[in-house]
């Protein structure tokens, strides 16, 4: 069975909110490892195909398959790459932050971008005093429309998703959701690949077939009557014997002159009684239900008043 292990680079732990992520992953029962990564701030999920109880830890690295790579970017780093992507002059800029050697399809996460952009908006007085400042020009270089344009370009050029979160708590929720989904993926794939034998074998699974010459229609009609509540096989036999198809019964109902006659058409049909029991009839209740079933045009009509 596959095992999913989130692995964190050591620089991630230097953030003040990283302890929230650590506690949440520990509560999930995940095995986490802190080790150097190609990207200093990254989370990597790897799957182990063997049972860790029977495989020595020193051979885990040779049995792992990298499943997901999440790169954590500072707002300033993301905005610098955004400015490169949205430049209008020169050839198109390659996607920053992404290494071509990465075996996994990467995803990006930026914490606090919205708050950072708001903090970078100087007041009117500050704008007038620092109009020629390079700092102000750098802060004004990227705006929310530029960020939205960059998100579209990343999706189109590199099929790259960017997760914008406000805090470490929100990032932790997404990381835990990723981890749970990857952990359940092998079992879901196994279930999806297995056929359900009870859907492919047995006469009842295939249903009653009706041929072009009409053979089999009586059996289908009998089964349909049996689907009504409180209908025994003997009652269904009585109705099917009198009206071998639903079309014949419908024609008989339409030929009735009054509504009362139509509702009670089947009421007096005799039902064959078993040995030692008195003979009986279909009865007015079932006659009314079948009549309404074949004649009503209201989809909300309640057929069985006793249900």
From TrEMBL:
A single Gene Ontology biological process assigned to it is: double-strand break repair
Q: Which domain of life is it from?
A: Eukaryota
Q: Which terms are listed as keywords in the entry?
A: DNA damage, DNA recombination, DNA repair, Nucleus
Give the primary localization class.
nucleus
Listed GO MF terms: crossover junction DNA endonuclease activity; DNA binding; enzyme-substrate adaptor activity
The protein's location, in the record's own words, is: Nucleus
Q: Which GO terms describe its cellular component?
A: chromosome, telomeric region; Holliday junction resolvase complex; nuclear replication fork
What Gene3D superfamilies does the annotation carry?
Answer: 3.40.50.10130, Crossover junction endonuclease EME1, DNA-binding domain
| Limits of the ERCC4 domain | 20-254
Q: Matching SMART domains, A to Z?
A: ERCC4
Query: In which family does this protein belong, per the annotation?
Result: Belongs to the EME1/MMS4 family.
What does the annotation say about its assembly with partners?
A: Part of the heterodimeric MUS81-EME2 complex; the complex forms specifically during the DNA replication phase of the cell cycle.
The name on file for this protein is: Structure-specific endonuclease subunit EME2
* Organism annotation: Ictidomys tridecemlineatus
């Amino acid at each position: 069975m596959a095992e999913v292990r989130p692995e964190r680079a050591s620089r991630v732990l230097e953030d003040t909110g990283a302890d929230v992520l650590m506690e949440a992953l520990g509560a999930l029962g995940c095995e986490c490892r802190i080790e150097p990564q190609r990207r200093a701030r990254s989370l990597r999920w790897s799957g182990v195909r063997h049972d860790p109880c029977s495989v020595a830890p020193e051979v885990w690295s040779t049995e792992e398959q990298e499943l997901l790579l999440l790169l954590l970017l500072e707002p300033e780093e993301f905005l610098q790459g955004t400015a490169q992507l949205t430049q209008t002059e020169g050839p198109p800029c390659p996607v920053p932050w992404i290494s071509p050697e990465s075996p996994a399809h990467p995803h990006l996460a930026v914490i606090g971008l919205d708050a950072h952009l708001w903090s970078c908006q100087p007041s009117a007085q500050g704008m007038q005093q620092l109009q020629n400042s390079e700092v102000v020009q750098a802060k004004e270089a990227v705006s929310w429309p530029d960020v939205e344009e960059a998100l579209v370009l990343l999706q189109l050029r590199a099929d790259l998703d960017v997760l914008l979160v406000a805090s470490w708590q929100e990032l932790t929720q997404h990381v835990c959701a990723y981890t749970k989904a990857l952990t359940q993926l092998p079992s879901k794939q196994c279930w999806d690949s297995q056929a359900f034998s009870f859907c492919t074998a047995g006469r009842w699974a295939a249903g009653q077939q009706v041929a072009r010459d009409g053979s089999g229609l009586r059996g289908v009609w009998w089964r349909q009557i049996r689907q009504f509540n409180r209908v025994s096989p003997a009652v269904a036999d009585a109705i099917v014997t009198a009206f071998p198809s639903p079309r014949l019964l419908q024609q008989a109902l339409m030929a009735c002159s009054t509504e009362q006659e139509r509702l009670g058409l089947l009421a007096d049909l005799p039902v064959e009684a078993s040995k030692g029991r008195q003979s009986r009839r279909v009865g007015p209740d079932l006659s009314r239900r079948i009549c309404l079933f074949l004649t009503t045009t209201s989809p909300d009509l309640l057929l069985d008043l006793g249900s």
